[in-house]
Design goal:
The structure is a homodimer of 320-residue chains. With 320 residues, chain A is α/β, with parallel strands linked by helices. Chain A has one domain: Aldolase class I (TIM Barrel). Helix content of chain A is 44%, strand content 15%. In chain A, helix 3 runs parallel beside helix 5 and helix 3 crosses helix 13. Chains A and B meet through helix 3, helix 4, helix 5, helix 6 and strand 4 of A and helix 3, helix 4, helix 5, helix 6 and strand 4 of B.
């Protein structure tokens, strides 16, 4: 065992994020990530009653309590077909302090269900600030009043605009918890072309330059089937680009948003899985949680069926 | 009065962010932004007693109460020489729910002191998520339980990596509150060169492409001395670049971090002020709040003196 691991947490001593991810994907036979983007006006109907159990009667506290009930129900329904949850931090942050508490509750519910917690926050800032975000999302903060726990996430999405020195402190915090990062490389929205592609159609594109950096940043587990601890957010809406990205980042796990509501198809993400089943995580948010709006089935039933449908397709692709 | 303003708040009807900024800079004769990056282990000594007034005895609540007292004291001391505060959201977020409440308290303290509130959060995400961040930092969120207020910021720092469609919802939320955005264009950290400059030294750089987009995005008040409502974060550590950035963004207000602790000198930012006094905001965080560590004076005295010193230099530059 390497000496430099001596003072880390037990989790870090026994594993890395890539090893943990590979083990969990294998056990659950799933690469599906349940995206949780709760909109207080579009929760599952049964969740609204939970507002009466809020700590106080403020709209924020009541909405936050309903959001937690909604997310817990979604995790109970779809979680068995998934390997991780991906709470969208913005949706919690808009509820203020009660929202941040709800985020912690939802992360806890994910852990209880045996799922990894990928905090989708897309943070990126200068070194001292990145250290503070690392404390917020991973291990926590030492204060004169005692230790303040962080969110306890297993991984965080990060924006590379400020450069590598903005990613290093986040990665350090992640590694201390055997966690990882997913760095934005090529996103799934139409505006991705504005800056991620070059103005003149030449190469390398910004996305390609970030990809090269992401590839260099990750620590590699010895087992080839286990991905590195620095992954890439790569939109699933352009399959031909996925192959190029895999070429540039042969050992990075890909987080693939955009399935369903944003127009991506799980059938198209096969290049992500080329190195092994744990190298592609297929994220669906509204595609799973709002499946009942399309099928007419009860929300939990529709979510379970859609998550299981996606799981089956992705698992077959990865085995192929 | 344009019809489309009819349903906006009174503030939005009478003004734009650029007009408000220009008026406040003129009245206060200051372009100094008080950066608030509170570290619970390095607060002003008198702030620690406030922990005993925390809502509960948890480390997070006690640390958050001390952070609020520290920031209030810094605002009371240095605020009279400033035009805005710039709370660093990461430093609050690491204290969890109590931290988010502390952020709201600090924003309120800034407003009470007559200062603009620039939330330094560097958010950037796809459209639906950007809408949620807009709700968090500006006006708020309608829920079935009633309206949940946002932070009430006057402006937000934003990351452009995902493209223009990630900025539009933030800008829409800002404008509805007569607020603005400061988009990352060229940051002050060493790693800025990793992606903001081109790999081959050619042009346009990523920073230049973002600058052109920022320039096109802002709404212009009729008065030339009033800047647009979309500004740029431009590091103050490379004055020759400032002139180029001003050329590309003739009407954008510049938020200039990096004075003091990061090595920037206020004397070097003159190009930012070329169009008028409100076109450059000089941000100093540790440079003001930790001034006592260099001078040996009491914290409030040292902060007041340093803020006033920076104010005097910047104001002279802008008049020159």
């Amino acid at each position: 065992m390497p000496v430099e691991h001596a003072e880390r947490s037990p989790a870090a001593v026994v594993s890395s994020f890539g090893s943990r991810l590979a083990a969990l994907v294998a056990v659950r036979e799933s690469q599906i990530v349940l995206g949780l983007d709760p909109d207080p006006s579009r929760l599952w109907p049964d969740a609204y009653a939970a507002a009466d159990r809020a700590a106080d009667g403020s709209p924020a506290s009541r909405a936050a309590a309903a959001v937690v009930a909604h997310c817990r129900a979604a995790i109970a329904a779809a979680g068995p077909a998934c390997v991780a949850i991906k709470p969208q931090v913005a949706c919690f942050e808009r509820l203020g302090a009660p929202g941040w508490r709800a985020l912690a509750d939802v992360a806890e519910a994910g852990r209880e269900a045996g799922l990894l917690v990928l905090a989708d926050a897309k943070r990126g800032d200068i070194d001292v600030t990145a250290t503070a975000y690392g404390q917020a999302f991973f291990g926590g903060t030492s204060t004169p009043f005692g230790d303040v726990g962080g969110l306890g996430a297993d991984a965080l999405t990060a924006s590379p605009f400020l450069g590598l020195d903005s990613l290093h402190p986040l990665l350090e915090a992640a590694r201390a918890a055997a966690g990882g990062l997913f760095v934005l490389v090529r996103t799934s929205n139409p505006g991705a072309e504005d800056f991620q592609e070059p103005a003149d159609g030449g190469t390398p594109t910004l996305s390609e330059r970030v990809a090269v950096a992401v590839n260099a940043l990750g620590q590699l587990p010895p087992e080839p089937r286990e991905p590195a601890d620095v992954g890439a957010v790569v939109g699933s809406t352009a399959p031909e680009r996925l192959a190029r990205m895999r070429e540039l980042m042969p050992r990075a796990p890909f987080l693939l948003p955009g399935i369903g509501a944003q127009g991506g198809r799980v059938e198209d993400v096969a290049p992500a899985f080329a190195p092994g089943p744990a190298y592609g995580l297929v994220s669906a948010s509204r595609g799973i949680v709002a499946a009942h709006e399309r099928s007419g089935a009860p929300p939990a039933t529709a979510a379970r069926q859609e998550a299981e449908r996606l799981r089956g397709i992705a698992w077959e692709l990865a085995r192929g």
